[in-house]
Design goal:
It is built from twelve helices and twelve strands. It is an alpha/beta fold. The protein has two domains: 114 residues, NAD(P)-binding Rossmann-like Domain (Rossmann fold, 3-Layer(aba) Sandwich); 180 residues, 3-Layer(aba) Sandwich (Rossmann fold), CATH 3.40.50.720. The strands form two sheets. A seven-stranded parallel sheet has the order 8-7-6-9-10-11-12. A five-stranded parallel sheet has the order 2-1-3-4-5, sandwiched between helices. α1 packs parallel to α12 and α5 crosses α7. The protein is elongated and about 65 Å long. The two termini are 30 Å apart. The relative contact order is 0.13.
Length: 318
């Protein structure tokens, strides 16, 4: 069995995992190497950011490829460029969910508790108790969590621990025990009109791109805040900047942006009451890596013994 891997993380650990299982692991250091090896591999372990149109085409011509294992939960490059027909695709499952949810909670609290302006005043040695007028709380707040997969559910656990009332917004709107209320995405604007905060936890697909557009932002109350730990393309960046600068939104906290990385001079940097972190929500020391490796190890064993794999995902046909 030949596995090709292209990753920016966990390279020694992946090599050890393959060695212990007795399979051949081939590193693709660059795009050319990946394209050369693609026709002759049984599986691909991949950081999705390395997936592009040439690789998608090369994999499509492979006769042996049966499994693609992504090292992240996100899979938007595969949605963009398409995936080989008949290949099992798995992502990182819930491996990053606890740390991403922790980051979402931290960003939510930072916005509501006026942490950024407090730090800015402290840097200037200014004591300004007037900031108290803008402090809000998650206690008894209504928070819409858009997307209720493993990350959304972990976010809900933490929000409810702070006394918030969670509204889960999903495609189906089916009830869930971790949500105080559930609604279909078709009712999004009605939900946005009555919540205090919105947390985005959906994958970026053709259906979710631009989901939070000018109309969605206009549905929110001026006192509401927006937190995005999903993908930047879910939010219309220009519309968000306008809403913040015009005072139609109390604040936004973004671990992801569109474009990403956010270039110097972009108006989002200077928008009022914005917190930006550089796509670090999934990190948390060695914990997420251990969880990812555990999942890949279980999937490798299942693959070798012809059992179903964990964390399978379906890519929307192009």
């Amino acid at each position: 069995m030949r596995i090709l891997y292209r990753s920016v993380i966990l390279q020694p650990q992946l090599e050890a995992l393959a060695r212990d299982a007795g399979v051949t692991l081939i590193e693709a250091a660059d795009t050319d190497a990946a394209l050369r090896e693609a026709p002759n591999i049984d599986a691909l372990w991949l950081w999705p950011g390395c997936y592009d149109a040439p690789l998608a085409a090369a994999l499509g011509s492979s006769k042996a490829l049966r499994w693609i294992q992504l090292l992240t939960m996100g899979y938007d490059p595969l949605e963009k460029y398409g995936a080989p027909h008949g290949v099992t695709i798995t992502n990182a499952g819930d491996a990053y969910a606890p740390t991403v949810a922790e980051h979402a909670l931290a960003l939510s609290l930072a916005l509501l508790r006026q942490i950024r302006p407090s730090i800015e005043r402290a840097a200037k040695q200014v004591w300004e108790p007037g900031l108290a007028a803008g402090v809000a709380t998650l206690n008894d707040a209504q928070v819409a969590v858009i997307g209720f997969g493993s990350i959304g559910r972990e976010i809900a656990v933490r929000l409810r621990g702070c006394g918030a009332r969670v509204v889960a917004v999903t495609r189906s709107g089916r009830p869930h025990p971790l949500a105080d209320e559930s609604a279909p995405v078709s009712a999004l604007h009605e939900i946005l009109a009555r919540v205090d905060a919105v947390v985005l936890a959906v994958p970026l697909t053709a259906q979710t791109r631009g989901l939070i557009d000018a109309a969605a932002l206009a549905a929110l109350r001026p006192s509401a805040v927006l937190v995005n730990i999903a993908r930047g393309g879910i939010v219309d960046t220009a519309a968000l900047v306008a809403a913040l600068k015009e005072g139609r939104l109390a604040g936004a906290a973004l671990d992801v942006t569109d474009p990403e990385p956010l270039p110097a001079g972009h108006p989002l940097w200077d928008a009022p009451n914005v917190i930006i972190t550089p796509h670090i929500a999934g990190y948390g020391g060695t914990v997420p890596g251990r969880r990812v490796l555990g999942l890949i190890g279980r999937n490798l064993d299942a693959f070798l013994h012809h059992r179903p794999l964990e964390a399978q995902i379906t890519i929307t046909p192009r």
